[in-house]
Amino acid sequence: MKVTLSDQLLLSVQKPARYIGGEVNSVQKDLKDIHTRFCFCFPDVYDVGMCHLGLQIIYHDLNSYKGVYCERSFAPWPDMEALMRKQQIPLYSLETFTPLKEFDFIGFTLQYEMSYTNILNMLDLAGIPLYSKDRTEDDPLVIAGGPNAYNPEPLADFMDLYYMGEGEVEYEHLFALYKEHREKGGKKRDFLRIAATGPGIYVPSFYEVEYEDHPAAGCDHTPRIRQVRPVFPDVPASVRKVLVRNMDDIEYPTHPIIPYLQIVHDRAVMEIFRGCIRGCRFCNAGMIYRPVRMRSKENILDWVDKVLAATGYDELSLTSLASNDYPGLYELLKTIHERYPHVNVSLPSLRVDAFSLALMEELGEGKKSGLTFAAEAGTQRLRDVINKGITEEEILDGVKLAFQGGWDRVKLYFMLGLPRETEEDVFGISKLASDIVHEWYQLPKEERSRDLTVTVSTSFFVPKPFTPFQWCAQADYDTYMKTQQFLDSKIRNKKVQYRCHDAFLSTLEGLLARGDRRTGDLIYAAWKNGCRFDSWSDMFDEAAWKKSIEETGTELAYYNYRERPEDEVFPWDHIDIGVTKKFLYREFERSKQGIVSPNCREQCLGCGIRLINDTGVCYEKSEEIR
Amino acid sequence: MNKQVIYEKSGRLRFVGHLDFMRTIHRAMRRADIPLSYSQGFNPHPHMSFASPLALGWSGEGEIMEFRTETDISDQEVMDRLSKELPEGIRILSCRTIPDKEPPIMAKIQAAGYQILLPEDRDWSDAVAKFLDRPSIMLKKMGKVRGRKQEIEVEVRPWIYEWKMEDPHTLSLICACGSEQNLKPDLLINELYQQSGELEKLRYAESICRTALYGRKEGKLINYSSPEA
Q1: Tell me, what's the pLDDT at B196?
Q2: Of the residues A73, A258, A611, B113, which has the fewest C-beta atoms closer than 10 A?
């Protein structure tokens, strides 16, 4: 069956280009050569999902396999959803307009917690039973991956299987097994038994969660997890993530799909390395993407040539978790700039210092956009607690140089509610902002630009799985808001603007991030109560979420406000990201003492990732770095 | 070198808005390695212009764009290279080199031809004749009064130059199009529905194809979408 959309329909929704497919570099295949059909589902609107590099990587990787066809689908915006429901149009793929229900696999990427209700909504729009247990041979296998998949439990009841790790590694093998199984006449559902024994695959229904008999300390009715164990002897007790050994051995999506619609980040993207050496204690990405693996300069340049030729983009973003940590960044940029003088190159997550300012000066050719400092905490003491290796001196030196160079917009990012935060740390945020303004006034009038804006933005700290802070209590709503009001009252400098937001979303994020199988009921209830696009502030329905928490008896005291004891069995303990729980706890202990830990290039701290692989930063020789 | 390209926009590309469409063409030019010339300054933009934006949902059979190249390139070369890079739904019909001094196409357009497919549930011949044969048609549209945006009433009958029913539900129309006088055919059709008591049709989006763009010389319409013009 093929879905057709009438002109009438397309002309009555906003941005119809979201729903038409057919973009340059999208892939068309002859279905008669295909044995496995996979639909990559991004649980957000097209314009957001199409910015995602992971989508382009998986899409082109999967489509490079013979007999496999990977298509795409996104969450329709509510105006489109309403019409689809009214006209009984099922959710379809953009490549062939095939209903999702007809695929062998549909794969969701889990990028952020607040997209979970969209997943249920997409399944529902596709006419696929929401719960894995209710699906039959007529339904596709529903698989999920991405960074949030490492805590698979909140969505465990809705997923048939999970892929743990980097997409480039195991899919080809998985599909080969699937093909073999199907050719022998095997049933789709029976394939799960075969898949579960392979690398990186987690089938939630093959694991049983046992709970304690009594509620956890300080909680009303929610008991802790006693253990999670497989129900079949050949299913592994712990599922280890799969990772790319050598970033230069894998393909790069040099022909990314070019959306017609202007999307949020409309540019060519080149990933220069994966992972982060820094080990900030609040950061989930810094742990789950370990170890740091570089792409060589030669390969990057070659791929940049290909990407630009295949897209015609005039903007290029070199992405990583921390640009400065790429050895030879300057030479790389210089070469790109020489080859493509008209291409605008941007570097996200660039640390501001003399070096990077010179770099930006060269890149921007006079364009002085804003500078961003992710200071995260207001005092050195608290930055040591969270292991954010940036000092006040570095920040002040950085802005001084920037002001001399003509920059006059500074953005500062902080988190409120960090573990061990005191009033002094919060006050430190406003003090740092004032000190930056002071730095500006230190410059002679003729040397500084006309006006200065310093913007302070705060978000609330949310403890995440697989971080040293996974044991931490999360501050409650009132504490969050009080801290925010306190800071607001302290920011008195006219040149400083303060941007903040409501804390309830952070509470929910924390709840879903550290949720377990019982949290699935909450997500289901929220979806039933009409929640979707929860990460869009204009769509977020606070009342519906509160109602759902109440209906399901979800105890925030258990999931959010409780500091976990050392022996806590986490819902994600049976997932192995290579970084050990022991190491994370050691880092948690060091945070309590305010001890800074060196980064991976300075000294190996034995996080565990070295033992499960043989490349990357763990095996870098110092002469290779410089 | 200044080039003028006549092209067709159809199929799914009808649902790509004008700004997104321009970006699509620009990227195709870059992929095709057309030596586009750019403006100077901090934000260089390509010397590329379109005769008249096409509304979302409409197709165009003789759309016109112009651009300047940095170095010489033959018309055939432009056609060959660009055609290869364009997505399905944009088709180049012709390319020619135009004199440097030529005013931009945008300034020359004064009228456009449309083919409008009306709902097929009735014969529209009489209703259309009754509607268009009147000496005056007043349309409400958004306009500016002393710089402020508000709804205004405009007399549009003089802006309709030619019309003909091709069959019981296909209307061909040539009417004003351009920066001075502009008549959007969908507004006209809405008024037709109201006048003929077909109010439920107001929600209907008819299929509209812009068949040609015209200028005027000595009072006579000339078809710029035809390569001979």
Answers
A1: 87
A2: A611
